[in-house]
Amino acid sequence: MLGATTIVAGSMLGVGIFLTPHLVAQSVTSPSLFLLLWALGGVLAIAGAVTYAELGAMMPDAGGDYVYLDRAFGPTLSFAAGVVLFVGVFGGSIASMSAAVSQYQLSLLAGLVGVDLAEPWIELAALGFELTGVELVAILLVLGLTAVNAVGVRLSSHTQTLLTLVPVGVLTVFAIVALATAPHVTAVPATTATGGASSIGSALLSIYFAYAGWNAVAYVGGEVLNPGQTIPRALLLGTGLVTALYLLLCAAWISVLGMGGLAGAFEAGTAAARALLGASAEGGVATIIAIALIGSVNATVLGGARIGYAMGREGALPRTFGMLSEGAKVPARALWAQAVFAIFLVASGTFEELVQLTSVAMFLLGSLTVCALFALRRREPDVDRPYRATLYPVLPCLYLVTALAVVGLEVWGFVAGEAGSGLPLLGIAVFVAVWFVRRLVGGDR
To answer: What does CATH list as the number for 2-441?
Structure first.
């Protein structure tokens, strides 16, 4: 139970709570609205968690959404969803978190000992190729955590527990201290928000990215003991705990920095530590944040490979992905394929682009999974369900309506010229394209 809960909490407690608050603060200047949006993000995460809890307890197998969508809607839609999940959502999350922790926390810590990660470390002039220290460290982080997960589930689970419990405890204490002493800190005046019809939608996309991971344990359902009880409890407990911590941290960021200071603080944790405790505290706080982010990357690596494994096992991807290693009994080939995708994304996108790309895709696929819950309730009413979604159908409907509204706002912002790039919609485009091609060549059973 502890291991499953820390997979959820550790996967959620990632880069988002430190690197997305400034994006939200740039869209909304009201502290009340800022906190309300973060609370709404928590409610949506819980609404999604009750959906996945029912489906995960009903179908405790590796693969999460892919398994649920295949049973509800057939192989064409589940294949398209699985491809976007494996390559875009999990690959994008691993890439964005690895790049962020390398660029900020690990760069700061390296700077304390005189090492500059921003400089090119590898250069191939003939090919016009260079790799900075930041990119190299991010790639090594992906490779290292993939190797840990390839050793076996026991080691990765113990690693996850350690990487989750330590930062949760320290960050909780830090937030309480910040709230108790923040009135003595001079806050920076608020700046003007960007405005526009898509501002709230963009803010919610950033927040949703921060909450991503609440469904992590559903992807390893086949490796959870007593899944009918453990999966729902881990999903709801882990999501609830992290939601409470996020609201506490957001209140601390505002109290210490003010909305204007928060909007200009790319990384809220070390900025708040610097303002509250002085420059000497940066190293300690950066270390704790780095541990939390590495734990989040580890949990994402653990869960994402199970999508590739489930698809390989069913023949939707090369069957080699669906093979378990002989000794460790883990999907090692799917793990290393996932690492390759993530490394490619590390070198090809900025943090903001990866957040938007990943968040829209997560909203879309989460909406489809909620639809799967409704479809299976109607089609298979007598199937054993160890857990039934709390407040059904209210919470699942709340998730579905809000997710579709946010995606709609993002589309509207792009059409109206308020969004600077169409990249956030790439996940939708890829999903539709893969679905269409699969429909032409395969068809549903």
So the answer is: 1.20.1740.10
